[in-house]
Amino acid sequence: MDSSQVERKLTAILSADVAGYSRLMGDDHEATLATLTEYRQLFSSIIETHHGRVVNAPGDAILAEFASVVDGVGCAAEIQRELAERNARLPEHRKMVFRIGINLGDVLVQEGGLYGDGVNIAARDLHIRHRLRPGGNPFAPGVRVPGQAKLQNINRLNDRINRKWHARICRIIPQSSSIGRIMKQNS
Question: Is 65 in contact with 54 (CB distance < 8 Å)?
């Protein structure tokens, strides 16, 4: 990799994937692909509305970046609300629920792609996120959204991720009138 073509920057990273995607595809791949296509369009629209950009979207995953972590967290909360409304119209076995991870981190940028630990914490921690309730938005507590999100520290998972990434995982607990509110973390 030619270092003259690589840029470093601090950015908010959103990573999403479908919980139970293999089961959905196994049950009905055409219906799953139709739902995934519809939901990706929703993701793209909401990401753009929140001043972000889709970086990559392989398989059932979506990777996006935001200059502002407030925009990233607001985007994730809006996506989960919209998906919940759309899923309410589907039979239980056809609901497509996304896990969304958010991290504020240093990344390498090359040809529009994002690389490095900043991305890994948001995107490569599926072994952690799959243990979280789908439909939630886990993120590192360095992601601060004053007055807009209630944070719940997930202690058992923190022990696992701290060994590798030295970061805590929290989740947003949406509230009806706004994205949420801040709750002091348990240390």
Answer: no
**Is residue 51 pLDDT above 90, yes or no?**
yes
The highest-confidence range among 40-44, 103-107, 161-165, 181-185, by mean pLDDT, is 40-44
Domain of residue 76, residue span: 3-130
Q: What is the CATH number of the domain that holds 69?
A: 3.30.70.1230
Distance in angstroms (rounded) separating the CA atoms of residues 151 and 62:
23
- Full-model pTM: 0.72
Instruction: Write out the DSSP string of 75-143.
Output: HHHHHHHHHHHHHTTS-GGG--EEEEEEEEEEEEEETTEEESHHHHHHHS-HHHHTTSPTT--EE-TT-
Number of domains in the chain: 1
The structure tokens 């993120």 sit at: 139
- Answer yes or no: is 32 within a domain: yes
C-alpha angle 139/177/94, rounded to 5°? 65
pLDDT at position 77 is 87
Angle, helices 29-49/69-87, rounded to nearest 10 degrees: 140
Res. 133 pLDDT band, cuts 50 70 90: low
**Cα 70 to the center of its chain, rounded Å:** 13
Determine, yes or no, domain membership for 111. yes
Q: 3-state DSSP call for residue 58?
A: coil
Tokens coding 107: 């990344």
